[in-house]
Amino acid sequence: MNTCRKSLRDAGFHDFALLKKVNGDYCLTGHALSLVEERSEQERKHKQSIKIQWLIAILAFVTALLTIVQAGLVKLNPLLDLTK
User: Fold this and answer.
1) Model pTM greater than 0.85?
2) CB contact at 8 A, 16 and 28
3) Tens place of pLDDT per residue across the chain (84 aa)
4) Which of 9, 17, 38, 58 is most buried by a 10 A CB count?
C-alpha cells in the first residue's frame, strides 16, 4: 500500500489538492475520483474509436477489391463466376 501512496503522490495528485492526508494515509478527494473516472472513460472511447477505424479501413479495402473485380480489371476463377 505504501508504494500506491507514493505513486499517487508522484503522479501529481498531491500537488493539485486531489489527495488529502488523513491519519498518515493519503485519501483521494471527490474531484480526484471524478478525474480518474473521466480519464478511464476517455481511454475506453479511444480504444473503441481505434477499433472502428480499423473496421472502416478493412471495409474500404474489401470494397476497393470488389470494385476492381466488378470493373473487370481482374478475372476471378470460374468457380466464383456469378454471371451464370
Assistant:
1) no
2) no
3) 444 555 555 555 555 667 777 787 777 777 778 888 888 999 999 999 999 999 999 999 999 999 998 888 887 776 566 665
4) 9
All cell numbers assigned to 2: 505504501
Residue type, 70: Q
Instruction: Please identify which residue in the block is written with the cell numbers 470460374.
Output: 78
Question: What is the distance between the alpha carbons of residues 19 and 80, in angstroms, rounded to a whole number?
Answer: 66
The grid coordinates of residue 81 equal 463466376
CA 37 to the chain's CA centroid = 15
- Please tell me the distance from the alpha carbon of residue 84 to that of residue 68, in angstroms, as a whole number: 20
**Domain map (residue ranges) of the chain:** 2-75
